[in-house]
Amino acid sequence: MKIKQPIRLIWPLAPILGALMFTSILLILFGARPEEAAQSMWRGAFGDQSKTLSVLAFWVPLFLASTGLLVTFTAGLWNIGVEGQIIVGAIAASWVALKFPGPTILLIPLEILASMIAAGLLGGLIALLKTRGGVHEIFGGLALNNLAIILTNYLISGPWQPPEGGTFRGTQPFQIAALLPRYADSRFSPISLIFALIAFGLVVLALRGTFWGLKLKALGKNPRSAFLLGVSSEREAILAMMFCGALAGLGGAVRVLSWFDSLRQSISGGIGFLALLVVMLASTRMFWVPFIAFFFSAVLNGSISLQLRTQLHSSLGGILTGVLVLFMLLFGNPDVLGIGKRSKQEETDER
Amino acid sequence: MHVELQDIQKSFGPVKANAGISLKFESGKIYGLLGENGAGKSTLMKILSGYQLPDRGHIILDSKPVKFASPANALMQGVGMVYQDPLDLPPFRVIDNYLLAKDKKLILDYRAVIKEMKTLLGRYNFDVDPDYLIESLSLGQRQQLELVRLLAGGAEMLILDEPTTGISAEQKDVLFESIRRLAYDEGKTVILVSHKLDEVQELCEYAYVLRRGRLAGEIDVPCRTENLVEMMFGQIPIREVRTDQALGEPVLELRDLSIETHSLMVQNINLQVKAGEIFGLAGLEGSGQKLLLQACAGLIHPNKGGISLEGADITPWSFHRRQGAGIAYLAAGRLEEGLVAGLSITEHIVLAQPKHDFMVDWRAARELTGERIKTYQIVGRPDSTADELSGGNQQRLLFSLLNSPLKLLLLEHPTRGLDIRSTDWIWNLLNQRRQDGTAILFMSADLDEVIERSDRIAVLSAGVMSRVVNARETTVDELGRLIGGQA
User: Fold this and answer.
1) Is B430 exposed, middle or buried (0-12, 13-18, 19+ CB in 10 A)?
2) Is B360 on the interface with A (CB under 8 A)?
3) Percent of chain A that is helix, strand, coil (3-state, to 5)
4) CA B429 – CA B407 distance, rounded (Å)
5) What H or E segment, with its residue span, contains residue B329?
6) Which pLDDT tens digit goes with each residue over B113-154?
7) ipTM score here?
8) Do A348 and B337 touch (CB under 8 A)?
9) Model-wide pTM > 0.80
10) Is A333 on the interface with B (CB under 8 A)?
11) CA proximity to A73, closest of A212, A219, A201
12) Who among B52, B323, B350 is closest to A214 (CB)?
């Protein structure tokens, strides 16, 4: 079945509508009113300026990590380790913020550099484990995610605990000079958004315009042929993972330097995994990434105050995003609607 | 059991693997089924053993038409097949594997089954310990185990697919002895699928020969080997399409090259290919030609021996280093090893350029692609993806990606699946390369092609290279004998 171009362009909206309908039906079954929930979510996300700024502040690190993942997805790498890379970036930025007194103009570049280097190296390590050690990047990434969480907990309860004693909740607040300048008492830092937009622009340029981007694309679609065409799979895999790690690390720095003001126990809060979903939803449509990330941010932030207004639990936002991802994976590609149909390739393989 | 195949037809896409084959098998006899690669032997035997269904035609067992839903179902009706790669479960113990298909009870009666199995193993002088893990067994032992499992399952007809590939001479003797016993003492029907003419002559009473999906002939064996060779490969008048070419200095030199994989040992290859020379490698699939090409390309590394390019030792060089030095390799699987599905022609051309800027100049690239499309007569647009092209156009695209000048060009089945026009066109291209002084080493399953296009030819048979023959003086007959392992 051939599908026309305009339909193809707006196709990603179909699973979104489907997910909204499904969640509405779920709400009705539980005796709640979907329109009330939606209204309350909307108010939770955009009800006043501070709420909107919250959505923006949550959006930026998510956008950064998703942007990094565009690179690894293009190269065919499942960088589950992105969560750990965010955490390690946050730790590195915290290290600078806690240990080096200095003016803002010096501290912020240092913090950002430290976070990008540390997380980039972590990404590179996962790639090395894959190319040299034969550890699939999913497993390497998962292991290092856990190590990053353990490292955070150790630092909070050990060397970096506040002078009044460890609480297991976080370090003491950073010096004011170390924090990103925030907009109107909110958690949103306009500078961080500029970083994210620059990063996104660079990634789009790298993937569309550079020879490196083309190599990654070839690698992601067929590593064997790419190798035979002269692409060094090891080098490019390491570079792609480091690139993604650096952006995720920057996202981590934004988390500690603007969303929080200290290193906290769950510093990422699952933003890395959320970013994986964002990029899966966008698939090859790069320009959807900022919008999907923003939608996620709005839904999740909007549902925080859900319980106050309605009798609904705030996890409704999580349910909606989860259902959305499932629907996207099921119906996301208009060409494979005939689910369960065997491809031609499989049939010839059986010869 | 009397088995009859009536007008069996099976197609894979446009390829007719079996184009109406009818055969008869009597009980108590040993049959040989012969044919070159792609002749349709495997497809036919997979149909007979229930692995796949025919598009048309009937299988008749003792004058009763049957339909097999699966190999297990075929075995229940008396037909069992020993595959080249045995269908066993390597992490299992021998006895567990044996029980798996057999005992459907909740509690397994190991003692009785071990006894039964040992009796069977002993009857055919097979040497397998039921307690061993399958993965610790040799291929020959696994074969014996499969045979016993099929017999215990009630097989009246046994199909053995290339059973002597990869087993020891001793195991081969045991196997042949047991096959004779099965046929002559126990009245089973045995089919030996093989390309080794000696073995068919030694073991079988009657041979069927397939060629291009049809029955090309049948004959009582032993017979004159020439008869079998002629039926297998046909006799087609040879056209002289070779261009004469003064040969230059040696480009590629292989010295005592040995390559070992888990299934094949290629040993002591000595070979020289000169600038401007076309050297053909013949042999059945899996005899070592591909390994040889891959070793020259640097995709696999030899266990022993050396490779030189224009006199310089390049044995330790990686694939990419050799690529940079002017060695190109084109694999047979176009979309698997060579092209990237989903990438456009332009993107392929850019990727394959020897020099790159950091940014891609897409406009210039599209222009270059337009030229290449014209030169190489590719039916497609610059932004057509590789998987949208037909096989012939994919092959043209692959050739358009080759850089100039090349010192050495390694080709696997350069014209497989192409029509005559594309084939001729590709060979024109290769002849141009040869005039530029490129040494060409290629393998092909098409003997006519090898003879018509090469200057010199070597045949590989189970990893052993034959003497090098002059393509202008050899015949399909001679090559056929070399392929069958005869000197």
Assistant:
1) buried
2) yes
3) 75, 0, 25
4) 15
5) strand B327-330
6) 888 888 989 888 888 888 888 888 877 888 888 899 899 888
7) 0.82
8) no
9) no
10) no
11) A219
12) B350
